[in-house]
Amino acid sequence: MPRRPVAVFAIAPWAFGGVFPVDLLTRLRQLVDIDPATTFTSFDGPAAAAALAEAEILLSGWGCPRIDAGVLAAAPRLRALVHAAGTVKARLDPVVFDRGLVVSSAAEANAVPVADYTIAMLVLGAKQVFGRAARYAAAVEGTPRDWLSGEGTGLHHCTVGVIGASRVGRLVLRRLRGFDVEVLLHDPYVSAAEAAHLGAELVGMDDLCRRGDLVTVHAPALPETRHMLDARRLDLLPEGAVVINTARGSLIDTEALTRSCASGRISAVLDVTDPEPLPPGHPLLALPNVLVTPHLAGAQGRELRRLGEFAVAEVGRFLSGAPLVGRVEPEQLPYIA
């Protein structure tokens, strides 16, 4: 019987059980030799050195140390890195690709709950749920409670601006097909024809801001995307517009957003902030028309299993020589989220 390839886990214990429940471990162990009782969050020490010396596949996740030249030197047999989480950008030194390693990420699987969160917030934001709920809760006895009046609210016939045709952005565009909305897309790497295929009108950033009743951000954090929603562009948004950010906090100028929301002119839903987390007492945390969530749009709880399923399937594809669904190419590394 041929020897199965040796694999090693590098994932934080808090995430391990959710990403790799027992049945997935059983399936994985039919493909590779791996010790489910051992997972590394540091490659220092003799145990890690011994494991790396034999490893052909590294199954990583949240808590994985950075993979650099030193790690590669300790892992001469390593052929593939399969990341059972989202981005690998902060985990990999480009030397990984120089060594010829195959890299795969479960970012596509992690994008699913982010897109679901975004759609939920588009629906709630369009109804102005957060500000109206705050006013309802604060109403003085004997005064009208703000729950009947919904003039100018609702997602129906809204214009939704999507910034970035990333994995998440494309899933959001696909889900928006189920709503009677006009969809705008800004992405400098997408043609008008491709945008139309995605169900959107390709527009410039300023035009998207002028026309968008709701604007949702799905672009990567790059030097050229920092503060892409700055004070000038936030001022272009229509009165009552809602900004949703599940991408990276640096894409929005926090001070300018705080001023715009504090004035009551626009609202915001922020799963990411700059800085992250916001300091205690920051105005955005107290504004009734702003919802700040603690970077939870990605896989959580029961959703973690989807990442493990993706990773185990990728290991199977790698070993059979089939194309990897989540393969990361070296030229993509600077531009991914």
Automatic annotation (TrEMBL):
PROSITE patterns associated with the record: D_2_HYDROXYACID_DH_3
Superkingdom, natural source: Bacteria
Record CDD domains: 2-Hacid_dh_8
UniProt entry tagged with the keyword NAD: yes
Signal peptide: none
Classification via InterPro entries: D-isomer_2-hydroxyacid_DH (IPR050223), D-isomer_DH_CS (IPR029753), D-isomer_DH_NAD-bd (IPR006140), NAD(P)-bd_dom_sf (IPR036291)
Keywords assigned by UniProt, alphabetized: NAD, Oxidoreductase
Record-given protein name: Hydroxyacid dehydrogenase
